[in-house]
Amino acid sequence: MKEFTKADLRNRMVVQYRNGERRMVVGDVLLGDNCWCCLAQYNDDLIRIGCRRDYDIMKVFPKIWGYNRMRTISVGNGAKILWERSEVKEVTMDEVEEKFGCKVKIVKE
Q1: What residues does 32 pair with on adjacent strands?
Q2: For labelling, which of 49, 66, 107, 109 has a CA lying 20 to 30 Å from the CA of 11?
Q3: Average pLDDT of 21-49?
């Protein structure tokens, strides 16, 4: 998937936060159930500025018609994802060894 930026967001697209909540893009606002957030509070890479990581945008869905449909988007039911954040998971050597159940030595390919 291509890298997605704040400039790529369009009215009626749906975004999903790291915490699973969804909001609809309406102008320069992300509209949710009884709440809203300005897109000005996001960097171009869709990371929330100066806030908990829970509100980083992790997925973007295509435009929908009707606010109520935002909550019914289900990837399992074939909903298309326009963009999804790809992250590298940081782990300690102890976590790797616990996962494999033995001592681990990192070698070059």
Answers
A1: 35
A2: 49
A3: 93
